[in-house]
Amino acid sequence: MFFAIFGDHMSPAFIFLLAGAYIPLNGYIYDEQVESNILLNSLPYTRKEIVSAKYISAIAYMILSIGVASVILYIFNFGFMIRDITIAMGLFFVFSAFAFPLFYILKPGYIGAAVLVGMIISAVVLPPLFRFITEHFVAITDFLTSLSITTIYLSGAAIAIILYLTSWMFSQFIYQRKVF
To answer: Which pTM value belongs to this model?
Structure first.
């Protein structure tokens, strides 16, 4: 509701991304703070099932959070389109694909700092990198501009989902070998 009232200058896709990522990231952070992995590993579940449940629940919470955010934004007459929701979902998959394995690699105290540093580095490095690519790799730019919007969205969705699934497998690999 805060963003619907005070965030009229913000992109709806960014608001949906924040809403969709909040609960899953909080869940991971809370699990690490209370060391729930010790409890989870004492239950009759395999480590593969534990990681799978976290990744599947992240998708479910993202969908529910974006649904609630959509209703709130609609009630407050905040203009958005389905395109904003799909962009936010794709960005959630990409962001989660890089952030979730960090929860299994890094110690709990370092995760927030690593995610924050990663976001700052991305904000600093990616825009100049994209400008460099558009200026020096004209063939790539021409190819991308020749594609239809549908093709670009479907390609982006496929890449985001593949990254998420790869991250899922990588997290399972890490979690199988982690000692508690």
So the answer is: 0.81
